[in-house]
Amino acid sequence: MSISCSKQAKGAAQKVNEQEKILIQRLKEADLTTKRFLKVGKPGCAIDEDKAAFEFEFQKHLYTPEELDSFPRWGILGCEFLVLIDSDDPRMYAELNRVLPNTFEVTSPRRGLPHKYLVVCYDSTGSQVPNKKLHLKGVTDEKGKLLDLGEVRADNHYLVAPGTVIRYIDKQTGQEKTGMYTITNNVPIARLEYRDFFNIIKPYIEEANGSIAQTITAEEMKEGVPEGSRHPKCLSYAGKLVWLGMDAETAYFHLKTWNETLCKPPLPDSELRRILKAVFGYSAEERGVTYQEALKGAEKKCLPIRLAENDKLLTEIHDDGKEISIDELREILDSTIKHDNESKLITFLDMLLNYTREDQQNIGYVAESSTGKSYIPLQLTPYFPKADVIELGRVNPTAFFHEWGISTTDPRDTREIEEEKKHKIIHVNLKQVILVFLDNPHAQLLQNLRPLLSHDREEIEVRNVDRSKTGSHRTNTYILHGFPTVIFCTANEKLDEQEKTRLTLLSPESTQEKLESAIILKIEKDSDREAYQKLLESDPKRKWLINRVLSIATAEIEEILIPIELRAQIFAKFKESHKNWMPRHQRDIGKLLALIKASALLNFKHREQTEKTITANLYDVENGFQLYSAVSESNELGLAPEIYREFLELKDDFLDPGLTLAEYQKKYYQKYHKLIGREKADNRIKQYLTVGLLQDNPDPNDRRKTRYMSEGVYVPENEQPTLDVNLPTIKPQDNFCTAHTPPPAYISKENKEAS
What we know:
alpha/beta; Rossmann fold; 5-stranded parallel beta sheet; 39% helix
């Protein structure tokens, strides 16, 4: 017998009220707005209309719980960070339950399958998660088409809220039934980063389903987009405007002009305001500025002046195709990093490779305290999307894995016990993540990351023994996914040989010229921090480079090819300075190839491109050799560049009869005007002995003493070239680069006069 809609709701009023309280509590815990409810169904509705939106253009008619208190059936809208996932098949739900973190769930009475609630942050461009159909590989219809087994509802799509009673037809019996949407997993709503969420659901999204891309191109900014693509593209465009530092009203003016002129048909003005409010609120969160405060501040400055200030920025967004030379890149990076040319260029280019499939690099800054070893990477990370960078101080393995990992139930644990008591696996997604360790990482963490640093496998299982709350020992399983870009800074010069070969070793300079420039910059910065920051934010070249990095990050270039005709030249040039092969050269050549590829990626729009690959050219090979030659000798010896430079500057003092430790300390002070302690001096000498730059012999006059000398060992004829001078702009048609380090010469007692 049919039951009227109003009668059902009245009978369930108390339950609806309790369900509502729980849902509202969870939304508030997650810092989500509660004005996201809509009316579904209506009195006297047909069964198949019981879940339909009650009002036309329901997105414009959203309510708070208080405003819907008298209405029996509610829907909840996925928007503004709230992502709803609907499973239509038990297999789809089981798979999602395996890969997604434990989160708030509401079960549908008809299918008996839970809806999952998640909070997913916007991406670096301000883009919201789009609506997506979910599929399982191999689950198709009779025509071979993938079946829709679920859906991501995040962009103004809704689900029925808990506490709502509906009528439905039971598929098995064909009978009419009633049932309530019920909270079946009352836990906090899990929070994920945009990148992590998409990495998790990517295997279940059919790429050929006509879904809308979540990035906006320069052409779309100029030409507009058709119906069906307007909302996500408008959201992305708004994100770019706010990300570039525009105030709310100026960004709204540009967004409105673009929408009315080019979108077909234009979005309503209220929708533009809502989009901008959401994007600006997310962008301003770290600055502690609300949308309303920004609008109020904007009124103090007339609109024409603000538009004139920002017109140039919009032009720069559109003009993203310019090719940039290594010298021009160095000039941009000079804005905050004085000198240190080879270090900042190599670091920046290696960071660009983060967005390839498996060319990510590892960098180690090794230098004594107060030399600015962490300063360089910290000044480069602002050019990259915040979501892609993790900056850490000293951290142990357990803290790292738990902080950045997602816990799931181990499928191998088949015990019939409560779900929370089963063995867990923590998945840590490091794919295309830039990890910056500002202090020497915990030794165990570095050991755990070694297979990833050497790219042995893209997925590695790690087991650690931790203490439980009761004090007993337990084994935790962690699975590391993807290849990260790793940068770590340390004052510890005693690096393990395994780390030395996996890292490109760099050091900040400590020359008088560099220190003087750094002190002047420090005075400028600390004298008026606000003015200094505004100066950086208004720098058009920095903005241009930030946008170039964003273009690379969203271009989805997986592979950079080196053509056959260039490979032979690379081999010949590398062999010139490596007469005798060593095992570590297998990794050293990879560092050179990485710089060649990074040069191509920097100007990817000017390289031959097919699908997700680009091809490097002769210009990139020249750039790679020029940069690699500046650090090749020190890296191939396993020394930090600054330590090796000090040896080159003092090498003549080590000639026969050599120096004792005390004499070395004295020479060091005379050269650098700073003291070096006995322990540090002894460690420095040991490093030179280990790599064969020095040999130790008893002092012939006092055999209790040891003298260290460079006679009879390999010592380079010339010091390493530096990049303190402007680099020439090399064109592909120029001759092949010869700026490489010549092979070392053998220095002995007989030919020291000639040397």
